[in-house]
Design a protein that fits this description.
By secondary structure, the protein is of the alpha+beta class. It has a two-stranded antiparallel sheet. Strands 3-4 form a two-stranded antiparallel ribbon. Strand 1 and strand 2 form a beta hairpin. The longest helix has 36 residues. The two termini are 24 Å apart.
Length: 132
């Protein structure tokens, strides 16, 4: 495995992570992705934040595993909301500030992998120029 392939795998992992963060931010106010019956009452289930976990895959390359964040939903008292149960609306467990920081981190990691790939490409070109 050469350094360009490793950098490309890192960029793919960070891209998947950024896509997931974008989906979390897009659903920050989604109060109902499905309904379920609990205690004989129909309840709306809000969007649950998804987290990208980067693991070591085949050949040591990074792979992304997506897991749902088990933290509690944010509850607000809004009796007039169509998805309110007992006057309380459950909102997704997505914190825009955390997502923004995660996006910044993923973007910087992507840039680092891109720079490493560009350096490897330049080294390969220099080697060919010297040999050729």
């Amino acid at each position: 495995m050469d350094s360009i392939e490793i950098s490309a795998a890192g960029m793919r992992a960070q891209r998947a992570r950024m896509d997931l963060i974008a989906a979390n931010l897009a659903n920050v106010d989604t109060t109902s992705v499905r309904t379920e019956r609990r205690d004989g009452e129909l309840r709306h289930v809000p969007y649950r934040r998804r987290i990208a976990t980067i693991l070591e895959g085949a050949g040591g390359l990074p792979v992304v595993k997506v897991v749902e964040d088990p933290s509690a939903f944010r509850a607000e008292h809004q009796p007039g909301h169509p998805h309110a149960a007992g006057g309380t609306v459950l909102f997704p467990n997505v914190n825009p500030m955390v997502e923004t920081l995660d996006m910044l981190e993923a973007s910087r990691a992507y840039e680092a992998n891109l720079t490493a790939a560009e350096v490897a490409k330049a080294m390969n070109q220099s080697t060919l120029r010297i040999l050729g």
